[in-house]
Design goal:
Shape: elongated
Largest sheet: 6 strands, antiparallel
Number of domains: 1
Number of strands: 16
Distance between the termini: 27 Å
Structural class: mainly beta
Helix content: under 10%
Strand order of the largest sheet: 1-4-5-12-13-16
Number of helices: 1
């Protein structure tokens, strides 16, 4: 049996000036910030009839099981709109943050990811006070599993048989919520991916 394990805890900040910050330098989370990254991989030879002979040993013995678990935090996002409240020309501009972002209801497709009432349109003539990248999108989780065996057909001919299941737990991967306050899908998750995918593979080696 063998395995590998890694975990990264990090924080990435940037200090930039854009129209979103009123052309002033503002320190905030970088677009690529991922505070948690976890990766576990393993391989295990099944003990059944490992030394078996005859047909039962050839069919049942010698199988190996491998798996990979990968978990990562979601991407930070900013709440902005293209409406020019500040009077500086078109571009992404933030709204005012007036309440808590926390949303305690059920989450999923067609449901809120954060509290949309936490934002309000700023008055004309200034930028909103909401900072950059204050929303964290849904995270990513993948669990892959494979079982495989090598059959010796002839002295110079072998066959590898593999059954692989990607996202075998069928864990849904939610899309990012809408971040334009003037959009009908603001704060809503409108998509998902990550359906279970199973494939069978046979490879001949000679």
């Amino acid at each position: 049996m063998g395995f590998g394990l890694s975990y990264t805890f990090a924080k990435t900040l940037t200090d930039i000036n854009t129209a979103l910050t009123g052309m002033n330098f503002a320190k905030a989370l970088d677009d690529w910030d991922r505070p948690h990254i976890f990766n576990l991989n393993s391989i295990y030879q099944l003990p059944f009839l490992r030394q078996g002979r005859g047909l039962s040993g050839a069919l049942v013995g010698g199988w190996q099981l491998s798996g990979v678990v990968f978990i990562r935090s979601g991407q930070p996002r900013s709440v902005t709109t293209s409406v020019d409240y500040a009077g500086v020309g078109p571009g992404s501009q933030p709204w005012d943050l007036v309440g808590s972002l926390k949303y305690s209801g059920e989450r999923g497709v067609g449901k809120y990811w954060f509290n949309p009432a936490a934002f309000a349109a700023p008055p004309s003539g200034r930028f909103g006070n909401a900072g950059r990248n204050l929303i964290r999108s849904p995270g990513y989780m993948s669990t892959d599993l494979a079982i495989f065996k090598t059959f010796r057909i002839h002295e110079r001919l072998r066959a590898d048989l593999r059954v692989e299941a990607f996202n075998w737990l069928n864990h849904p991967l939610l899309g990012s919520p809408g971040t334009d306050p003037r959009s009908g899908n603001f704060a809503l998750v409108t998509s998902k991916s990550g359906e279970r995918n199973v494939q069978l593979g046979l490879k001949f080696i000679f």
